[in-house]
């Protein structure tokens, strides 16, 4: 089914972490100094929060030294740099990561211990920096870690949201959203840079003028102007040499056209303008995989793109003046999905209207500057903006988009003369009842390279999403399989396993993850198996403690820890997992001696606040969990946990404790997945479909070390073509019927029959768009294999070890190397110490 491929080697340019820059005594002194001089408190009064801030401040001193040296090196070498444009950066916590990357974790632990303080408790004080929804935002965070580690000149550009992704509470089984306030008591890492404030225009109208050479000149007269205030977060590479920055823009009122109101005595009215301007960076839209179509969202996108481009051009001009000829040698911009696609017409506007370059020259620069990453094929996630909305907010940009499209349509006409069907498909403008601007088409047309995020996804991007673009420009579409940083996702989050690996193969694997293959020779070694599984067991005990604290439930740590953690979405099929749990529950009730190894099913997932069915599935999981966990007939064998407020810092506690990793999306729907990589790296065995990066994980670990089930992409297409009817499965499979009917009773919601019915109906009258029922039997059979494999302790230990050993390909260092080779054409810049 799967073939074995050799993991591409990520030859890291970075060297081993050096001896720490501070010893224990010096770090201790620095922490205490900050307690006194930065926080104005002392050792006796300080609580953990104060200790956290003082420790951050002590570490930040070293970080900033690295930042200065890096910026100096980049400046003097006039380096080409990648500018990673992303509406989301899901950074999580920074203290532990920065300490690890500076090789100061042990030192800090010892220093704080001597001060009578627990580092673990101090780390828990840090709020997650949750400026992202899920995979796409976390990928950006892993990528900037790898870029710094590999000493690549790079800058991340995004939005300084006041509120990141909402905090999830579970009340009576249902999700409640609460605002996230990650900066409430100050963020010790960020540095405000008022000297680099930019101004951004919005609204207004376009004036057409005739220049002296008869040239038509366009002038945009904006209706309002907002300020972008940059906040820099230093990004420390592993080894601490290169420190890049993540620059996030906060919106602020510019005071533009407030003055009349103000002078007329309208002090309070003038504040309305301020509030509107400041709304732009207020809150992260909490949708993944759906496009909201909201005006404020478009303004957010333009706001951060316009600020970032001005920043880039200011820096370029400092070195090269008005000579644009070297711009594309110095600057490459990566668009993280289409959210920053408006940067394409914005750069055209700057070049044509401001720099007065002719269109062809400007377009040549543009199409050598941008590259675009596609993260989804789901139609509801592909961004489209009403032309009328663009016209109102960005009138000049709409004109430029029309011009780009006009010229592109001429190219299409040359390639496919008279073919109007192809033209309407490739056009940036969708001529529906309401004219729409397709940001995906704009991104492909305006970029020199377009990539998908796993082999199968990139193949589908070529074959199904953009086949004509692929014919037109055969070199443009490519693949870069996603990756994860092994520093955060193994070294920092799983210290016991890291120490065991260090002992076996040395400590260079965080920089060259393919070295983990050296563990494979120990996969059959009884002693190593014992050590490996002891680490897993200890991690399970630690997670059980967290579960107890968060939910009150005591879980059986001898059970299989079966974990599904990701955003809640129908295509990810948490409800397929739930159907299987219900099947086990029924089997146990019908046959009390039903033979299964005890299992704890653990979920973590946030639903978009407006996604009703996703919230219903969360409610169903919680209600089923409540029933099962309180049913003494089954709860020694079966338990279900829903951990509230899934986020990066919770993932770091869950992943090291997983035995089984659930990666069960409908084939063709999950572009890549990255949680699948994190779990396998920590020795969890995947139960998964042949979807996204699961396919490449299977190639690496081999068929014996993964449980693949379900329809393939081709089989899904074939079934849909023939006409899929969930009723066929419902009526022919007694177990499926019984489970679905069960959901409609009041068994799980006493006194409230039908409270879980929406889940059933989505799978029957709703048409089961993601084929849960079609894949159910295959899934259930795979789970029986999991059960059998786990009971064979030696076999399982070997599988777990092989998963860790074979994950080398999935380091984000390898992804970055692929981007460098296939897209960015960058060279590392060695920072002098
Ligand atoms: O990007 C995810 C993919 O689903 C996953 O398979 C892949 O591994 C990961 C990294 O490549 N996509 C994702 O996370 N998308 C979003 O978070 C997202 C957020 C906002 C919007 C759309 C998608 N939006 O339109 O607002």
TrEMBL record:
Domain of life: Bacteria
One Pfam family in the UniProt entry: Phosphorylase
Protein name (database record): Alpha-1,4 glucan phosphorylase
Cofactor requirement: pyridoxal 5'-phosphate
Family membership: Belongs to the glycogen phosphorylase family.
Compositional bias annotation for Low complexity: 7-16
Keyword Cell membrane appears in the UniProt entry: no
Keyword Signal set for record: no
Annotated stretches, region: Disordered: 1-20
Enzyme Commission code: 2.4.1.1
Molecular functions (GO terms): 1,4-alpha-oligoglucan phosphorylase activity
Keyword list, A-Z: Carbohydrate metabolism, Glycosyltransferase, Pyridoxal phosphate, Transferase
Coiled coil: none
InterPro entries: Glycg_phsphrylas, Glyco_trans_35, Pyridoxal_P_attach_site
Function: Phosphorylase is an important allosteric enzyme in carbohydrate metabolism. Enzymes from different sources differ in their regulatory mechanisms and in their natural substrates. However, all known phosphorylases share catalytic and structural properties. Allosteric enzyme that catalyzes the rate-limiting step in glycogen catabolism, the phosphorolytic cleavage of glycogen to produce glucose-1-phosphate, and plays a central role in maintaining cellular and organismal glucose homeostasis.
UniProt catalytic activity: [(1->4)-alpha-D-glucosyl](n) + phosphate = [(1->4)-alpha-D-glucosyl](n-1) + alpha-D-glucose 1-phosphate
Enzyme class, first EC level, given as a word: transferase
NCBIfam families attached to this UniProt entry: P_ylase
């Amino acid at each position: 089914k799967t073939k074995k491929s050799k993991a591409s080697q990520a030859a890291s340019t970075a060297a081993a972490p050096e001896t720490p820059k501070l010893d224990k005594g010096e770090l201790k002194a620095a922490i205490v100094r900050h307690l006194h001089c930065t926080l104005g408190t002392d050792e006796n009064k300080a609580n953990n929060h104060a200790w956290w801030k003082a420790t951050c401040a002590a570490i930040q001193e070293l970080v900033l030294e690295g930042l200065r040296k890096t910026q100096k090196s980049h400046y003097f070498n006039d380096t080409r740099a990648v500018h990673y444009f992303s509406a989301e950066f899901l950074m999580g916590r920074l203290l532990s990561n920065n300490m690890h990357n500076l090789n100061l974790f042990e030192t800090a632990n010892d220093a704080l211990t001597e001060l009578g303080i627990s580092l673990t408790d101090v780390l828990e004080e840090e709020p997650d920096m949750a400026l992202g929804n899920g995979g796409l935002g976390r990928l950006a965070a892993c990528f900037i870690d790898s870029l710094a580690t590999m000493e690549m000149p790079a800058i991340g550009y995004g939005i300084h949201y006041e509120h990141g992704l909402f905090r999830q509470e579970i009340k009576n089984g249902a999700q409640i959203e609460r605002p996230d306030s990650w900066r409430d008591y100050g963020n010790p890492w960020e540095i405000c840079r008022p000297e680099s404030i930019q101004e951004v225009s919005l609204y207004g109208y376009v004036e057409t003028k005739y220049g002296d050479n008869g040239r038509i000149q366009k002038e945009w007269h904006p209706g309002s102007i907002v300020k972008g205030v940059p906040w820099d977060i230093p990004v420390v590479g592993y080894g601490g040499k290169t420190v890049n920055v993540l620059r996030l823009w906060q919106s602020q009122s510019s005071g533009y056209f407030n003055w009349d109101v103000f002078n007329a005595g309208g002090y309070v009215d003038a504040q309305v303008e301020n509030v509107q301007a400041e709304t732009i960076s207020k809150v992260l839209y909490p949708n993944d995989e759906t496009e909201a179509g909201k005006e404020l969202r478009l303004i957010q996108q333009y706001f951060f793109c316009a600020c970032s481009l001005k920043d880039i051009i200011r820096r370029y001009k400092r070195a090269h003046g008005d000579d644009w000829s070297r711009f594309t040698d110095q600057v490459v911009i990566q668009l993280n999905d289409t959210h920053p696609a408006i940067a394409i017409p914005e750069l055209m506007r700057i070049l044509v209207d401001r720099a007065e370059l002719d269109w062809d020259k400007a377009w040549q620069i543009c199409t050598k500057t941008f590259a675009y990453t596609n993260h989804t094929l789901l139609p509801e996630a592909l961004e489209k903006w009403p032309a009328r909305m663009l016209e109102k907010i960005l009138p000049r940009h709409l004109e430029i988009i029309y011009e780009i499209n006009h010229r592109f349509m001429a190219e299409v006409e040359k390639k496919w003369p008279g073919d109007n069907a192809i033209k309407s498909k490739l056009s940036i403008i969708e001529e529906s009842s309401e004219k729409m601007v397709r940001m995906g088409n704009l991104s492909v047309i305006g970029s020199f390279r377009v990539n998908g995020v796993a082999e199968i996804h990139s193949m589908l991007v070529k074959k199904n999403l953009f086949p004509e673009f692929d014919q037109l420009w055969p070199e443009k579409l490519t693949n870069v399989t996603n990756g994860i940083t092994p520093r955060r996702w193994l070294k920092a989050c799983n210290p016991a396993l890291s120490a065991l690996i260090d002992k076996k193969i040395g400590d260079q694997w965080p920089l060259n993850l393919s070295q983990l293959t050296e563990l494979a020779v120990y996969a059959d070694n009884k002693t190593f198996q014992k050590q490996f599984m002891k680490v897993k067991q200890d991690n399970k005990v630690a997670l059980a403690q967290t579960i107890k604290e968060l939910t009150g439930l005591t879980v059986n740590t001898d059970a299989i820890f079966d974990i599904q953690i990701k955003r809640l979405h129908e295509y990810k099929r948490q409800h397929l997992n739930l159907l299987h749990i219900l099947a086990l529950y029924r089997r146990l009730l019908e046959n009390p001696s039903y033979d299964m190894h005890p299992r704890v099913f653990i979920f973590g997932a946030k639903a978009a606040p407006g996604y009703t069915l996703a919230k219903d599935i969360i409610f169903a999981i919680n209600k089923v969990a409540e029933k099962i966990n309180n049913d003494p007939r089954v709860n020694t064998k079966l338990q279900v946990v829903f951990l509230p407020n899934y986020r990066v810092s919770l993932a770091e506690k869950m992943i090291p404790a997983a035995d089984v990793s659930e990666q069960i999306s409908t084939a063709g729907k999950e572009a890549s997945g990255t949680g699948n990589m994190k779990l396998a790296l920590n020795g969890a065995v995947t139960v998964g479909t042949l979807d996204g990066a699961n396919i490449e994980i299977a190639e690496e670990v081999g068929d014996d070390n993964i449980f693949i089930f379900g329809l393939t992409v081709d089989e899904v297409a074939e079934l849909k073509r023939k006409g899929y009817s969930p009723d066929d499965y419902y009526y022919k499979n007694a177990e499926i019927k019984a489970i679905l009917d069960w959901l409609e009773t009041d068994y799980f919601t006493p006194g409230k029959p039908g409270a879980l019915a929406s889940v059933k109906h989505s799978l029957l009258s709703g048409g089961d768009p993601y084929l849960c029922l079609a894949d159910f039997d295959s899934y259930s059979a795979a789970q029986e294999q999991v059960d059998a494999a786990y009971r064979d302790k030696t076999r399982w230990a070997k599988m777990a070890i092989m998963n860790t050993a074979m994950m080398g390909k999935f380091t984000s260092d390898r992804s970055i190397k692929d981007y460098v080779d296939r897209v960015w054409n960058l060279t590392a810049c060695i920072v002098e110490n």
